[in-house]
Amino acid sequence: MQKHNIKINPRKPYKRMRMKWLLFFLIIAVVIVWFGKKDKQETKPQPEVVQPLEEPRDDYVYLEESPDIRVVLQAGNYSGIYHAKVELTFPDGGYILTCINEQWEKHLIPAKNSVSIGIGAEFDFSITQDMLIAAVACQEDKPIIVNSLERNREVCRYYGRMEITLEDAGLLVVNALPLETYLCGVVPSEMPASYEEEALKAQAILARTYAYKYLIEPAYPEFQAHVDDSIAFQVYGNLDNNAVTSKAVSDTAGILLFSDRSLAEVYYYSTSCGYGTDGAAWGGEGQDYLQATRIGKGTLKSADGSMSGEEAETYYLQKLEGEQTFRNMISAPFVEGYESREGWYRWSACDVQINTEAILARMKERYEANPNVILTKNKSGEFVSKPVKNLGEIKNITVAERGAGGVCKSVIIEGTGNTYKILLEYNIRYVLNGSGTSVIKADGTEIYCKTLLPSGFFYLDTVHFGQNVISYNIYGGGYGHGVGLSQNGANQMAKLGINCQEILEKFFPGTVFVSYENHS
Could you tell me if residue 170 is left (phi over 0), alpha (psi between -120 and 50 degrees) or otherwise beta? Predict the structure, then answer.
């Protein structure tokens, strides 16, 4: 009889082999699932970065005569909305109101006296989170001085009421005042008082229209405030009120810019390169009245004489989206441009040294702000939205696409680690500025640009050492985003006798004036 060793299973070697294969297939499955998840993180951007425009809203129903606006005053030199302390002076006297649990107390402040507000007994008024402090001048037309602020003026005078509350991050200061009074502090901060009267009136109408949109949809609903006083909205109170700019406000009192029955989306910037762009420069579909336009005098004619006027302008604007036509325009300035004598009309930055770390850091920053504006080239050659990681050495930088009027629409940075596409003029100006750039204006003045390149209307040539880019030269024109009204363009138009309404029709074609009173 044959004996079998019962301690040894003759099928066990086969079981071991089967387990190895199962383990192998399990590992393959895990890898496939992991890569599948990774691919899902790479999303193709939508054709338009921002959401489609909503249906036009009837803004007539919101109009009222001389409404109040509530403005958050940033601390220090625009360092944020929270203050460590607040110091006020009442040149003509006034009073402080304190409210706790709906119980009000009134404290008279004699003329030229000052008070301090903060947390602790060392302040004249110690504030707690359940308290509202309001400062009011003796008369509506008398100012309150905020000594604890730093602005481009020696004395920071404000009108209306100052409200101070204690939030988790510090003191919040809100200036509540009539809209027309607010505009008297905006216009001189946004346009020099030395500019022509009709240009200042155009600026006043745009400032009023811009502010009114935030009266309808406040930017700080948690504080019952509409805007703040920084460049994030309109600069307010950075310079003293001026009789000339205040007259521009009063001469246009109550006038707003409308498109159909909606307040127009109004934008303005300092200087054009002879051409402006449309709302798509920021990734949106844009409004009909935010168009690329030639900002110059005289009638444009084609070289062969076959086209002139509007037809020639439309044709040339389309041609500017081509690289060579744009280069020719920047290199041989459009002398009929209203701003051809302005310093920012043309500018250059030569021998800009590559700072790979700064460029990579700025791309990461813009990706975090909006994942759809910094795209990474994948193995299939498509540009997808995924976290910005390695750049390596830069092999090339090219303008991939130009938008209306020739503005940079996308730029590709090819690195040894990854290739990235940067979308929209702001992000391009921010990333390529790297750690800062010295720019030479047309008048020979040298300006250091810390945050952004002057505009998105530029071309660049790279300098290589071997296969890598070591520096680049940039040649551009204009200062600002190029959408809406060119302030220097408006001023030059006004010098030629063009009135406020004609100026706004040029930059916002098809819009109309509407007033509080007659809605017409």
Answer: left
Element (H, E) at 162: strand 161-167
Q: For 430-510, where are the E strands, in sequence order?
A: 437-441, 446-449, 458-465, 468-476, 485-486
CB atoms within 10 A of CB 170: 16
What backbone phi and psi angles, to 5 degrees, belong to 383?
-95, 120
Would you give per-residue pLDDT tens digits along the chain (520 residues)? 333 333 334 434 434 444 555 555 555 554 444 444 443 333 333 333 334 445 667 887 778 877 999 999 999 989 999 999 999 999 999 999 999 998 999 999 999 999 999 999 999 999 999 999 999 999 999 999 999 999 999 999 999 999 999 999 999 999 999 999 999 999 999 999 999 999 999 999 999 999 999 999 999 999 999 999 999 999 999 999 999 999 999 999 999 999 988 999 999 999 999 999 999 987 766 688 999 999 998 777 666 666 677 777 888 889 999 999 999 999 976 678 899 999 999 999 999 999 999 999 999 999 999 999 999 999 999 999 999 999 999 999 999 999 999 999 999 999 999 999 999 999 999 999 999 999 999 999 999 999 999 999 999 999 999 999 999 999 999 999 999 999 999 999 999 999 999 999 999 999 999 997 665 4
Distance of CA 44 to the CA centre of its chain: 25
Measure the CA–CA gap between 451 and 231, rounded to whole angstroms. 14
Bridge partners (DSSP) listed for residue 308? 301
| Angstrom distance (rounded) from CA 63 to CA 54 | 20
Distance CA 198, CA 206 (A): 13
Residue 262: strand pairing partners: 259
421/431 Cα distance (integer angstroms): 11
Q: Which two tokens stand for residue 147?
A: 């000594």
Euclidean distance between CA atoms 503 and 134, whole angstroms: 41
Phi, psi of 199 (to 5 degrees): -70, -40
Amino acid at position 418, single letter: N
The predicted model scores a pTM of 0.86
